[in-house]
Specification:
72% helix; 17 helices; mainly alpha
Length: 394
Amino acid sequence: MAAEPLVGTAAVARDELSPACSAAPACAPVEGSVRTARKLGGTPAKGLVRVPSAADGAPSVRRRKALVLVALTALVVASFLFSLTLGRYDMDFGQLLALLAAPFSGSAEATDANVFFTIRLPRVLAALVVGAALSGAGCAFQGIFKNPMVSPDLLGASAGACFGAALGILLSFGSLGIEIAAFAAGVAAVLVSYGLSSVIGRRMSGVLVLVLSGLVVGNLFQAFTSAVKFLADPNSQLPEITFWLMGGLSSVREGDLVGLLAAFAVGTVGIMVLRWRLNVMALGDEEALSLGVNVKRTRLAVIACATLLTSASVAVAGMVGWVGLIVPHLARFLVGSDHRALVPASMLLGGAFLMLVDDVCRSVYTTEIPLSILTAILGAPLFVYLICRQRKSL
């Protein structure tokens, strides 16, 4: 099935408008989008805007999307159970079920239970949550900025989190302190980007200035990270910083999951609640305003939730690239551009994807491969393929 263009969400936006918004003229949003596109540079590109049709809300389409979500849920469960059987101490599904029942039955051996519950289970859970968080954040950013090339590190969250972690290692904060520093610096970087855009962008497009501010702040924090690496002890601190920046889940323990799960819960609930507004905002700011959506507040809320997910993920797993960029495109092939289905599909697919990638990282070689190496090897050619396929569909 060919991918629906991102701005094709205009076709499904009307299906979920509030009753007050539904009173607006039926075709005004799409016609307004066409007029806006013409103002910005001639006729709108073919495929970018399409007129709403009855097929968008047809029962058969809804059933197909529901079946896809059920299949992705089954994929996540299967990947989760499969990942739990892999490791230096391989186990079959019978042993796995016995260990999962151990807290109730007490029949498992102490050594096996200790390895499983303190190392393997937290790691697989972290892979699931980080993959889902980065994919959900990437989907939200692509929707809010109406650009399929956007990734979760657009506004500097990843660069800020990397600087915070590097600074924490330099100052010998310890594992928990490093995660807190990374999370705080990631959030701070986005706040700086937002503040900078509000100061210098009063006479320019708010979205454009925000993106440019994010690029500036991201590069600035990358320079700060380089300065920390320059100051670090080359025999101990510098290797630790380097390996942390490559991304990995080998050091995740059960205590690391508390903050990650809390941030994931808050960010996910926020994006899920707001996902229908992403469809409306695909029509353009003027049309969304005319339909009763507060564009500035919605954009700020979505960015806040996506930043929370990104910063928490980078704080635990390090720099994991390509997941938030590629997975939403794959999900779009499966369920289309309607964010009501696209957001949960992206998160389910991202969780399964990162669990399987982590399985490869810890299984194919004697030493563990950093996550970012494998995600780049898989993500770069896949992204080129998606671009070529998208180009053929226009």
